[in-house]
Amino acid sequence: MLRFHRGWGRFRTPEGGEVWSLTTNERFGVNGDPRLVQQIFEMLDRGDAAGPDVEPPGSASLIEGLRRIGAVIDDNDQRPGVADPDGRYVHQSEFFSLWETPELSGGAIQDALRGSTVLIVGVGAFGTWIALNCARIGIGTIILVDPDTVEATNLPRQVLYRTADVGRPKVEVAAEMLAVSDPSVKVVTHDRLIREVADLADLAARADLVFNSFGYRVANIRDIIAETCVRTGTPSLLSGGSTLGPLCVPGRTACYQCMVDGDGALAGTIDKAVANRWLPPRSPFAPLIAAMSSLAVWEATRFLTGCSAPLTENAVWSVDLFKYEMTRITGDRRPSCAVCGTGNDR
């Protein structure tokens, strides 16, 4: 049966009506007899519009126009969700319905998360918030890597740890806490120090996405993660500090080094930091870390489910959380890039 797309709003106007997309804000006027428009809107709200033969007369062409712009779909062909036996994610599936298609329901989009595997390298400030969000939204498998133990100084900003956990392995505690969020999420832990690509390659190869949460600070581990993902062909999302992106799909989109090489101001700042052995101050403040980590997981959700096009492919977002301003820096994949260039493709 035909019904309104769940990602579209509608209301009556003196000219007939208006519909608009809640995700793109596209708006369209629906001209005609206001009473007829209202009657059709009510039928589509109920989901009992049958198509071209629907009554009253004159409604078929109006409904077909709504269908052409995507405001109306036939849910007979939709694949429902199947991976939520206890109804835990019913409201989240409703959220994903904003991006439903004639083939996929919001529940089916939720299933895509359940079928995904992510790798989180480092279960510290950003890593714990990312891991918690990944478990809360129902990502099926979460791989955690960290060789450290919990310290008292971690507690103000690393959300998975408690006072009683001081001295315990971070990955062990994190796995216990994530199981509380959703026991059906599979958490795989590795108490492993990453010194080179070989230490990480086997894990990256199993993931659909790797979270590289070391940002644009001068960090050897960030480079190891990036190189590993290029070699294994695994997409990775760079975040950390006040930056988000790029989302690097090896062989297709720019990596962080492409972005640095393509932006003189960014490259100059990093070069000076290296020359002076100076690192930007960290932001060990839980609310800001939580905000940036949540953006990273939302961007990962876009990529893993395909519900909405990622906004960090060939782009970096710089987020000023003091002024609430965001700046988007775009770039292109560079064939000569030392990290992801043609000579490094595997």
Automatic annotation (TrEMBL):
InterPro entries (alphabetical): ThiF/MoeB/HesA, ThiF_NAD_FAD-bd, Ubiquitin-activating_enz
GO molecular function: nucleotidyltransferase activity; thiosulfate-cyanide sulfurtransferase activity; ubiquitin-like modifier activating enzyme activity
Top-level taxon: Bacteria
Cellular component, GO annotation: cytoplasm
THIF-type NAD/FAD binding fold domain sequence ranges: 106-338
Protein name, as recorded: THIF-type NAD/FAD binding fold domain-containing protein
Organism, as annotated: Sphaerisporangium rufum
